[in-house]
UniProtKB/TrEMBL annotation:
SUPFAM superfamilies: C-terminal effector domain of the bipartite response regulators (SSF46894), CheY-like (SSF52172). It comes from the Bacteria. It comes from Amycolatopsis melonis. The modification 4-aspartylphosphate is found at residue 54. This is Response regulator transcription factor. The keyword Phosphoprotein applies. Residues 133-199 form the HTH luxR-type domain. Pfam families: GerE (PF00196), Response_reg (PF00072). The keyword Phosphoprotein applies. Residues 3-119 form the Response regulatory domain. Keywords: DNA-binding, Phosphoprotein.
Length: 201
């Protein structure tokens, strides 16, 4: 039996995924969690072989959790299941060393096949999305610029961002000015929109 962990914060969706995978004769869902913070401990405790992870999770996003699994529990494969079918999101997922990337609107049989595929060591990625990612533009922002923009997009003010990232408020403002210029945005809000639509945040 393939031991699977499901991480999805929407209860109905998580329940549906657990039920769907439970219909497969060779798959057993050994854990289901609603927060990114629960993924690594649950995967360890239940000896999960495959973790099916949503990107947008409370506590810790799915890509960060997938990266941690890759580093600390390399025997557990990761399959990102998301509605964010943007090339930039796929590139971030691949950078996090995920084993597979599947859109939530994929046919149900694709999910079980993807679970089997990643366990067998194959990289399972939606074909159309892979081609789009191949042609997409790399993110022009540095890691620190992305950190500042991400926190700004979450509603933190300049002083709060500065305190959390151990920077001065002036440095945060300089980062945001640079980000807006690099993305050819009209202002911070526009820069956030561009980054989100490109899948960089």
């Amino acid at each position: 039996m393939i031991r699977v962990l499901v991480a999805e914060d929407m209860h109905i969706v998580r329940g549906a995924l657990v039920a769907l995978l439970g219909l497969e004769p060779d798959i057993e869902v050994v854990a289901d969690v609603a927060s990114g913070l629960e993924i690594l401990p649950a995967a360890r405790a239940k000896q999960a072989q495959v973790a099916v992870i949503d990107i947008d999770l409370p506590g810790k996003d799915g890509l960060t959790a997938a990266g941690e699994l890759h580093e600390q529990l390399p025997g557990c494969r990761t399959l990102i299941l998301t509605s964010l079918g943007r090339p930039g999101t796929l590139r971030r997922a691949l950078d996090a060393k995920v084993s597979g990337f599947l859109l939530k609107d994929a046919p149900p049989d694709k999910l079980a096949n993807a679970v089997r595929g990643v366990l067998a060591g194959r990289r399972m990625v939606d074909g159309d999305l892979a081609l789009a990612a191949w042609d997409s533009v790399d993110c022009p922002l540095t890691g620190r610029e992305l950190d500042v923009l991400r926190m700004t997009s979450q509603g933190y003010g300049t002083v709060e961002v500065a305190a959390r990232l151990y920077l001065s408020a002036g440095t945060v403002r300089n980062y945001l000015t640079t980000v807006v210029a690099k993305l050819n945005g009209r202002n911070r809000v526009d820069a956030i929109r561009i980054a989100e639509e490109s899948g960089w945040l």
